[in-house]
Automatic annotation (TrEMBL):
Biased composition (Gly residues): 805-832
Name of the protein described by the UniProt record: Transglycosylase domain-containing protein
InterPro entries: Beta-lactam/transpept-like, Glyco_trans_51, Glycosyltr_51/Transpeptidase, Lysozyme-like_dom_sf, PBP_transglycosylase, PCN-bd_Tpept
Cross-referenced PANTHER family: BINDING PROTEIN TRANSPEPTIDASE, PUTATIVE-RELATED, PENICILLIN-BINDING PROTEIN 1A
Biased composition (Polar residues): 1-10
Record Pfam families: Transgly, Transpeptidase
Feature: compositional bias, Low complexity: 11-20, 104-118, 833-852
Domain Penicillin-binding protein transpeptidase: 463-721
Start-end of Basic residues biased regions: 119-133
Biased composition regions of type Basic and acidic residues, renumbered to the chain: 49-61
Comp. bias (Acidic residues): 62-77, 85-99
Transmembrane segments: 145-166
Length: 873
C-alpha cells in the first residue's frame, strides 16, 4: 500500500478487477437517449464517439477469423496495468506519472483508455471493406479454388473406382443370337430359322467402300480417336437439352458396347457402364475387331440385325455384292432405320436422300471417294419389304430335312444347331426345285376343289436325286410348312406298294435265283399270274395275294408282269429268291434297314414297308447308276462365323452287280413304254419306272429315272384334323388315284423341265445272260399258239380273262371286268374316271396251313384265308 495520499475522485484499479457495473453514473448528470445504448463504462465524449464509429465497420467486417481474434487480443491488455513501481508509479509503462483525471470523468476512465488503445492499434492495419449485395453470394477465389480441387479429386477418384469396378461382361443373349441360313447350291437363299434375323460376317467379307460409308455416317475419326469422345458427349447432351434434337455423342466403340454387352435402355447406369466398358474394350481389342462387331450387331430396320441381314432385307444380296451407293444407303439407316426406309415410307424420301448425300459427302471429305465418282452415283432405291425367308412354303420342309440329315450323321446335333450362326449350303438346285413345285401345283394343287371332301385330304411328296453323285437336287414336302408341317418327302408311314417290286427282280438276278422247277429267273421267265394263287415253296402261313381288281393273267413272263404289276407273280418270285435276300438287296440299294414293316416274308414284294419318298429316290438312283450306291447327300457345305464345319465324305459301294441293276432297268423301261407308267413318257426322255399303290388306295406312287435323274413322287391321303390316313377315292374328281395318274404326270412334267436344254441320253445297259430270251424249257406265252385248255401257259380268251387291270396305267380291251381308262392320260387318248367300287382288302397275317410245293395251281384258287393282305399295286 502506498503511503502517498490518493487523489480525490481517483481510485487505483486492480489489474484483475472487473469493469464497474452498468449502474455507475456520474453524480449530477442526466441520462440521455443515446446513453441507454452505450456500453457501460464507455466515454460519451465526441472523441469516444468518433472512435466507436471507426471501430464499427471493422466489427461488422466479412467475418474473417483473424480480425476478430485481433480485437480480442487488443482489448485484454487495455484493462490490465502493471503494478506501480518507483520508476513507473502509475503502472502504465512510462516513468512520468499520468495527469490526474478530472473527477467528472472518473467512472469512464477505464473504458476511455481501452478505446484509445484499441483505436491506436487498428490505425496500423489496412481495413477491408464490407461485402454487400450480390457479392455476398459469390464465393471468394479461395473458396472457388478449393471447390475445384475437391471436385477434381472426386472425379479422378470416381474414374479410377469405376474403371476398377466395371468389368467387361459376357455378351448379351440377343447380341449373340443368329439365324441359321439355308442356301441353294448356287448360294441363293432358301430359308432362315431363328428368333433374331442376324448372320455374322467377317470384316473382310464387307467391301471397304461399305465400311467407309458407315464410318462417314457414324464416326469419321474412328481409327484415330480414342474409344470415347467426352466433348461429343457434352455437345450431344447440350443439343438435347436445348431442344436441338435428341442426339447421341457415342463413338462406334460405345455403340458396339451398348449393342453387344448391354442393352438399349436409356438409363444413367447403362451410360456409366457403357463409358467404362468402352475404355477397356478400346485397350483390349483392335479397331477392326470393334468395327466388325459393330457392323454385325447394329439394327438396320426390317427386323435385320447386322449388315449382312440388312443387305438381304433391302437389296436381296450378300453384303459382299453391295456397291458404294447401296452401302451408303445402308449406312444412312443406322441413324433412323424406320424413318429412312423409303420403300415402306415414300413420304420420307427427301430426308433419306439428304442423309445419303451426307454420307457420300463425308466420304469425299475424308478422301475415301473422289468427287467424280460421287457425281456418277444415283440413289439406289431399295426393294419393297418382304417377309423374312423363314419357314413358310417349301423352306420349312427343307430346314426340317436338313436338320434330320445332320443329326442322323452326327454332323451337328439339335442343341448345337440351335445356337445359330450356321450358313448351310444344300445340294438343292433352285431351278429344279422350282420345276418340281410347279409340276405339283399344275397337276394336283390347281385341281383341288374345296367342295370335295376327298380333296381336303390330298398330300404330295417328291424328291429328285442325281444318280452319279447322290445329291438331292429337289424336294417337295407339302403345300406350305406353316399349314402342313409334316414333310411328305421324308415321312415313313405310307406303304410304298408295287414300287418295291423292282428290288425283287434285282435280287433274283444278283443271286442267280431259280424258279421252283429250277429255271433261272430273268425278264422272260414265265410265272402263273392268277389272282389269289397261293405261293409255292413257302413254309410259313398260307399266302395267296390278290391282283388289283382281282384280275387273273395266267402264265405271264416277268417282263409283262412288271408292266401289269401282277402281285401273284412277284410274291412267288420273292419266295423263289428268298424273302431275306430280297430284303438284303433292298437295304443295299438304299432302303434303311430300320424301315417299318420291312420283313422277310412273301408279302415283301408287294411293298408293305413304309419307306420315305427320299429313301425310295435313293434306291432307284442306285439302279440308275448301274448298281453303284452313293449315299444320298443333302448338304454341300457348312460354315459358322466363317469357319468351315467338316463334313464326312459320302460313302460309295457296289450294292448289286451292274448286270442286276441294268437288267432291272430294262424291265422298268417297259413299264414306261407301254405299261402302267406310260404317262411318264411326257418327259420326252428315255425313262424307266414303276407305279405303286398303297393298301386301300391311301397312297399312289411313281418312282422312275433317266440316266441323269432319279425322281419319286407320291400322292397321299391324310385327314387334316385327325392325321389318319385316308383313301384317295374321289380325289381330284376321279374315282381313284393311281401311280400312273397324277404321280407319273408330275414326274413327266418335272423331268422335262429339269433336263430342258441338256442333251438327251440313252441308257447304257449291260444285261444278265438270258434276259433277251426265255429260259430253256419255257415258252413265251405271248408268242405261242396252243389249243390245249390244260396248258398253263395258254393265253386266256378275252371272254374268260377277268380284265387287263393295271396299276393306274391304260387299260386295254379286255373281257369281262375290264374298264376303259384309269383316270389319267394314256398313250392313245384321254382316260375316263374309274367306276370301280373299292374293295376291302383281306386281313394281314391270317393263319393257314403250310403248302406243299406242287405243279402250277388252277386259275381259281381254293377259298379260305389268304394270309398277309394283298396290297394294291
Amino acid at each position: 500500500m502506498s503511503d502517498e495520499p490518493q487523489q480525490q475522485g481517483w481510485t487505483p484499479r486492480d489489474a484483475t478487477a472487473a469493469d464497474p457495473p452498468d449502474t455507475d453514473k456520474r453524480p449530477g448528470t442526466e441520462t440521455g437517449p443515446d446513453d441507454t445504448d452505450r456500453p457501460p463504462g464507455e466515454d460519451d465524449t465526441p472523441e469516444a464517439d468518433e472512435a466507436r464509429a471507426d471501430d464499427g465497420p471493422r466489427a461488422a467486417d466479412d467475418g474473417e477469423s483473424g480480425d476478430a481474434q485481433e480485437g480480442a487480443d487488443d482489448e485484454a491488455p487495455a484493462t490490465e496495468k502493471a503494478a506501480p513501481t518507483d520508476e513507473d508509479p502509475d503502472g502504465d509503462g512510462d516513468e512520468e506519472p499520468d495527469e490526474p483525471v478530472p473527477s467528472t470523468h472518473t467512472a469512464h476512465t477505464g473504458a476511455t483508455a481501452t478505446a484509445a488503445v484499441k483505436t491506436g492499434k487498428k490505425k496500423g492495419r489496412a481495413s477491408r471493406p464490407k461485402r454487400t449485395g450480390w457479392r455476398r453470394a459469390v464465393p471468394t477465389w479461395r473458396v472457388t479454388l478449393g471447390a475445384l480441387l475437391f471436385a477434381s479429386l472426386l472425379v479422378i477418384g470416381g474414374l479410377v473406382t469405376g474403371y476398377l469396378l466395371v468389368d467387361i461382361p459376357p455378351a448379351n443373349a440377343a447380341a449373340t443370337a443368329q439365324t441359321n441360313v439355308y442356301l441353294y447350291e448356287d448360294g441363293t437363299h432358301i430359308a432362315r430359322d431363328g428368333d433374331v434375323n442376324r448372320e455374322n460376317v467377317s470384316l473382310d467379307k464387307i467391301p471397304l467402300p461399305v465400311r467407309r460409308a458407315v464410318l462417314a455416317a457414324e464416326d469419321r475419326d474412328f481409327y484415330s480417336a480414342p474409344a470415347i469422345d467426352p466433348m461429343a458427349m457434352v455437345r450431344a447432351a447440350w443439343n438435347t437439352v436445348t431442344g436441338k434434337g435428341k442426339q447421341s455423342g457415342s463413338t462406334i466403340t460405345q455403340q458396339y458396347v451398348k449393342n453387344y454387352y448391354l442393352g438399349q435402355e436409356q438409363t444413367i447406369t447403362r451410360k456409366v457402364k457403357e463409358f467404362f466398358i468402352a475404355i477397356k474394350l478400346g485397350r483390349n481389342q483392335s479397331k477392326d475387331e470393334i468395327l466388325e462387331g459393330y457392323l454385325n450387331t447394329s439394327y438396320f430396320g426390317r427386323n435385320a440385325y447386322g449388315i449382312q441381314a440388312a443387305a438381304h432385307a433391302y437389296y436381296g444380296k450378300d453384303v459382299q455384292d453391295v456397291d458404294i451407293a447401296q452401302g451408303a444407303y445402308l449406312a444412312s439407316l443406322l441413324n433412323a432405320p424406320n424413318a429412312y426406309d423409303v420403300a415402306t415410307y415414300p413420304e420420307n424420301k427427301q430426308a433419306a436422300l439428304a442423309r445419303w448425300k451426307y454420307v457420300l459427302g463425308g466420304m469425299v471429305k475424308e478422301k475415301w471417294l473422289s468427287s467424280e465418282d460421287r457425281a456418277d452415283l444415283t440413289f439406289p432405291m431399295p426393294e419393297r419389304a418382304k417377309p423374312v425367308s423363314g419357314l413358310s412354303g417349301q423352306g420349312g420342309y427343307i430346314v426340317q430335312a436338313v436338320k434330320e440329315y445332320l443329326a442322323a450323321r452326327g454332323i451337328l446335333d439339335e442343341k448345337t444347331l440351335a445356337t445359330g450362326g450356321h450358313r448351310i449350303t444344300t445340294t438343292l438346285q433352285r431351278g429344279k426345285q422350282d420345276a418340281l413345285s410347279a409340276a405339283v401345283d399344275e397337276q394336283v394343287i390347281s385341281e383341288l376343289d374345296s367342295e370335295r371332301d376327298a380333296d381336303r385330304n390330298v398330300r404330295v411328296g417328291g424328291v429328285s436325286v442325281e444318280p452319279a453323285t447322290g445329291k438331292v437336287v429337289a424336294m417337295y414336302g407339302g403345300i406350305d410348312y406353316t399349314k402342313q408341317f409334316v414333310n411328305n418327302a421324308t415321312r415313313r408311314d405310307y406303304q410304298v406298294g408295287s414300287t418295291f417290286k423292282p428290288f425283287v427282280i434285282a435280287a433274283a438276278v444278283e443271286n442267280r435265283s431259280t424258279t421252283q422247277d429250277g429255271h433261272p429267273i430273268n425278264p422272260n421267265t414265265v410265272y402263273v399270274g392268277d389272282s389269289k394263287r397261293p405261293v409255292q415253296g413257302w413254309t410259313g402261313a398260307r399266302y395267296a395275294p390278290e391282283n388289283e381288281d382281282d384280275v387273273s393273267y395266267g402264265p405271264i413272263p416277268v417282263r409283262r408282269a412288271a408292266d401289269e404289276s401282277v402281285n401273284a407273280v412277284f410274291a412267288q418270285m420273292a419266295v423263289d429268291v428268298g424273302p431275306s435276300r430280297v430284303m438284303d438287296t433292298a437295304i443295299a440299294l438304299g432302303i434303311p434297314k430300320t424301315t417299318p414293316d420291312l420283313s422277310p416274308s412273301p408279302s415283301i414284294a408287294l411293298g408293305p414297308a413304309t419307306a420315305s419318298v427320299l429313301d425310295m429316290a435313293g434306291a432307284y438312283a442306285t439302279l440308275a447308276n448301274h448298281g453303284e450306291h452313293t449315299e444320298h447327300t443333302l448338304v454341300e457345305s457348312i460354315t459358322k462365323n466363317g469357319t468351315e464345319v467338316p463334313l464326312p465324305e459320302p460313302s460309295t459301294e457296289q450294292a448289286v452287280s451292274r448286270e442286276a441293276a441294268d437288267t432291272t432297268t430294262a424291265v422298268l423301261r417297259g413299264v414306261v413304254d407301254g405299261g402302267t407308267g406310260s404317262a411318264a413318257q411326257s418327259a420326252g426322255r428315255p425313262a424307266a419306272g414303276k407305279t405303286g399303290t398303297a393298301e386301300e388306295d391311301r397312297a399312289a406312287w411313281f418312282a422312275g429315272y433317266t440316266p441323269e435323274l432319279a425322281t419319286v413322287v407320291a400322292v397321299m391321303g391324310q385327314n387334316p384334323k385327325t392325321g389318319a390316313q385316308t383313301p384317295l377315292y374321289g380325289a381330284l374328281g376321279m374315282g381313284r388315284i393311281n401311280g400312273g395318274g397324277a404321280p407319273a404326270q408330275i414326274w413327266g412334267q418335272y423331268t422335262a423341265a429339269a433336263l430342258e436344254g441338256t442333251p438327251v441320253q440313252g441308257f447304257d445297259l449291260r444285261l444278265a445272260p438270258g434276259s433277251n430270251e426265255p429260259p430253256p424249257g419255257q415258252r413265251d406265252p405271248e408268242n405261242q399258239e396252243s389249243g390245249n385248255p390244260e396248258d398253263p401257259y395258254r393265253p386266256r380268251d378275252p371272254g374268260e380273262q377277268a380284265g387287263n387291270g393295271r396299276d393306274g396305267g391304260p387299260y386295254g380291251v379286255g373281257g369281262a371286268g375290264s374298264r376303259p381308262g384309269a383316270g389319267q392320260a394314256t398313250g392313245t387318248g384321254p382316260a375316263g374316271p374309274s367306276g370301280r367300287t373299292p374293295r376291302t382288302p383281306t386281313g394281314a397275317g391270317s393263319p393257314a396251313a403250310p403248302l406243299t410245293p406242287a405243279a402250277p395251281a388252277p386259275a381259281t384258287p381254293p377259298t379260305g384265308p389268304t394270309g398277309p393282305a394283298a396290297r394294291p399295286h
